[in-house]
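Need a sequence for this fold. Nothing fancy.
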């Protein structure tokens, strides 16, 4: 949605420039439509201050007036608008890269309060009242700061931080523990278990925001310094990007082709669901160790994200790269993983692309490798495919908009349709005027991934009932649900969180916020 802010600012300044270039009088109708248009758009894209300025100007201008504005008069009338737009254009960096905060607390009312405050300070906040969902979200999202209530325990009574420590999960994610019994023993226990900070309830909300900001800042510094993935000890994405740039420079000079590969563990979620995240982490570590030991000297192996890894193979054509990755796959499938008295094996799928033209960005190369990877997945997994400029293999996620307001459905459909995704990812959008028609739809009966945008208040069946039905009747991992609620419906928000909503947005919402949140949920749903 930042592009909409940028586009609006550019449109305004472009119109001003056109009037100035023409050096002629401006018809009153043009000035009126100009102010009216900005007033209706500014707040929608998140420029509230600009909305306030144009609202005041709108009150001063009469639609029925018939006259011509001299250029100087027009500039004077719009001087606040012009000044604001130039200031934004020169000094404001618009970005969707908000720090991600995960807060786990059994009290949904407190989560609502903290989420609203931190998001007003430009954080992206995910909340959870459930222990297992917190663990899943932590592994899935990898937040920039984890805030946990000391009383949140699993079915065995083990606090979350102790469980993470016992699992051997080496997190660089800073952890803040909050406790309504901040005695000395509890504070010491929290720090012994690995907490980076401790606050007592009730929280001083401003101090809370300052301390979270400090932890996020430290995390960013660590990320910028490290070139090795903390869990697997493979290189990280930052190092891979740097090495790719060097390899492109070498290619430009010598025209010697090289290859890039991408591999993805097959059915890795099933491993996590069956054996737990601790075993899943062990699989990732064993894979990285095996690959590093069996790849050639000079090859680079990096963790690219989640269970996805990238390889850069210098001076290697695609035919040789294919044989190399197939050899690595065959060896890896022979490894045995032990869990108590049970053993299992794993495989991966891979895609390889040869880089034989200069100027290709890493993003473009990885997109091509990704296409080959999904061709391998499509053909049954545990295989490697080479990119040959073949037809795009697409991965689909279905997005449902369930709202009785036709305008909201149209607006959200447009926003979703313009989301920027890789070319081999597709979104299928469907809208529903009520929860009953949604649940009865054949469109809902597939095994695809779904992201559901669900209005809280609808005729026939409200959003909470729909959410409850989804969570009770369907696979939990098949759906990501965003609730649309009223600011006055705090109880509904709390109930939605308890029922397993993944996120919520309050009406009236800003399209900028909705786009960022939807993009996040859709990527998690793929």
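Here you go.
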């Amino acid at each position: 949605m930042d592009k909409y802010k940028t586009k609006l600012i550019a449109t305004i300044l472009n119109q001003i420039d056109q009037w100035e270039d023409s050096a002629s009088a401006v018809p009153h109708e043009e000035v009126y439509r100009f102010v009216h248009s900005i007033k209706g758009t500014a707040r929608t894209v998140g420029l509230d201050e600009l909305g306030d300025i144009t609202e005041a100007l709108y009150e001063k201008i009469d639609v029925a007036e018939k006259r011509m504005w001299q250029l100087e008069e027009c500039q004077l009338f719009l001087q606040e608008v012009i000044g604001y737009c130039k200031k934004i254009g020169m000094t404001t960096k618009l970005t969707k890269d908000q720090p991600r905060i995960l807060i786990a607390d059994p009290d949904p009312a407190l989560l609502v309060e903290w989420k609203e405050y931190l998001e007003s300070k430009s954080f992206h906040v995910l909340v959870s009242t459930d222990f297992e969902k917190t663990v899943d979200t932590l592994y899935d999202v990898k937040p920039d700061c984890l805030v946990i209530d000391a009383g949140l325990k699993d079915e065995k009574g083990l606090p979350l931080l102790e469980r993470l420590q016992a699992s051997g999960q080496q997190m660089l994610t800073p952890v803040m523990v909050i406790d309504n019994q901040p005695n000395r023993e509890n504070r010491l226990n929290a720090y012994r278990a690995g907490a980076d900070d401790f606050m007592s309830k009730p929280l001083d909300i401003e101090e809370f925001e300052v301390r979270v900001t400090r932890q996020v800042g430290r995390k960013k510094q660590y990320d910028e310094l490290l070139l090795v993935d903390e869990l697997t000890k493979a290189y990280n994405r930052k190092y891979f990007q740097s090495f790719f740039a060097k390899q492109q420079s070498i290619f430009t000079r010598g025209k010697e082709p090289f290859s890039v590969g991408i591999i993805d563990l097959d059915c890795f979620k099933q491993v996590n669901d069956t054996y737990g995240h601790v075993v899943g982490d062990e699989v990732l570590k064993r894979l990285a160790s095996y690959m590093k030991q069996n790849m050639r000297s000079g090859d680079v192996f990096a963790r690219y994200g989640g269970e996805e890894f990238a390889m850069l193979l210098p001076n290697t054509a695609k035919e040789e790269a294919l044989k190399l990755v197939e050899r690595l796959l065959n060896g890896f499938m022979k490894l045995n993983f032990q869990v108590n008295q049970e053993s299992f094996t794993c495989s991966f799928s891979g895609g390889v692309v040869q880089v034989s033209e200069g100027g290709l960005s890493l993003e473009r190369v990885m997109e091509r490798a990704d296409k080959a990877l999904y061709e391998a997945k499509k053909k049954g997994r545990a295989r490697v495919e080479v990119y040959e400029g073949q037809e795009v293999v697409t991965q689909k996620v279905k997005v449902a908009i369930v709202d009785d307001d036709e305008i909201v459905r149209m607006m959200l459909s447009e926003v979703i349709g313009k989301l920027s995704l890789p070319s081999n990812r597709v979104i299928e959008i469907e809208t529903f005027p009520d929860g009953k028609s949604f649940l009865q739809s054949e469109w809902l009966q597939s095994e695809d991934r779904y992201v559901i945008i669900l209005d809280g208040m609808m005729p026939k069946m409200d959003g909470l009932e729909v959410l409850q039905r989804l969570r009770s009747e369907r696979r939990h991992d098949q759906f990501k649900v965003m609730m649309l609620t009223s600011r006055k419906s705090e109880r509904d928000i709390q109930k939605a969180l308890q029922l397993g909503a993944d996120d919520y947005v309050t009406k009236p919402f800003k399209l900028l916020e909705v786009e960022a949140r939807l993009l996040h949920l859709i990527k998690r749903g793929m």
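For context: Residues 2-91 form a domain with the Four Helix Bundle (Hemerythrin (Met), subunit A) fold (CATH 1.20.120).
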